[in-house]
Amino acid sequence: MKDFNQLIQEFEQLLKSDDLVMIKFYESNIDLIENTPYQPQEFDQKLKMTGEYGLSLVSAGLYSKATKVLKSVIQQFKIIAERKDKDPYEITYFEHLLWNYGVALWEIKNTKETKIVFEKLVKHYPKNEKYHAWLNGLKANKIQKINNVFLVIGAFYLVGNYTFFDKLNEDVQNILSWLSIPILTTFLALELYIYLLKRKKAN
Question: Which of these, 134, 97, 128, 130, lies nearest to 116 by C-alpha position?
Fold first, then answer.
């Protein structure tokens, strides 16, 4: 049975390999990697293995599994960095993990958590235009969902105006007419805001 030092050597040889090779390596040795007692100096290496496994899962399109792995790695990475009095956000590898975690969350349609991740990325890396673009896109998508409700209401009003509204009494028609004004105004305002967000994303 191989020991942990042998595993480290194999891992280092695989760092530039295909993602599927890295996934197979990790999953073939998962008991040894996850259940072996480690010396403090070995734990960083174990965490790097798990991190590379998570990144490979993202690259291979295995997003659901990747989110679970990367969430755990990111939490452990932060704990270790803080114990060493280091800011994890100043470590390039941590940024890479966080970015891939956000992408994986987006791919599994977890937009709420995706937005939280990209808010952190924008906060800690304010000069990175890619992170700003993603966050603006997420905001635009959320507002678009709200605006779709106004679109349905507007379509209903338009159909009703040409079909059965004239059969209603005058007071009801007046109320519906007055209600249409704020609905239309809100719809147009949100559409303009979405356009500006998407323009920011494009730029």
Answer: 134
Residue with tokens 């730029």: 203
The burial class, CB within 10 Å (0-12 / 13-18 / 19+), for 193 is: middle
**What is the CATH topology of the domain spanning 4-126?**
1.25.40
Q: What pTM did the predictor assign? A: 0.72
CA distance 154 to 44: 57
Instruction: Indicate the SS3 state at residue 162.
Output: coil
Domain residue limits, the chain: 4-126, 135-202
Give the chain's length.
203
**Residue 106: exposed, middle, or buried by beta-carbon count in 10 A (0-12, 13-18, 19+)?**
buried
The three-state secondary structure class of 62 is coil
For 105, the enclosing helix (H) or strand (E) is helix 92-107
Residues 6+ apart with CB under 8 A from 183: 150, 153, 154, 157
Grade residue 202 by pLDDT with cuts at 50, 70 and 90.
very low
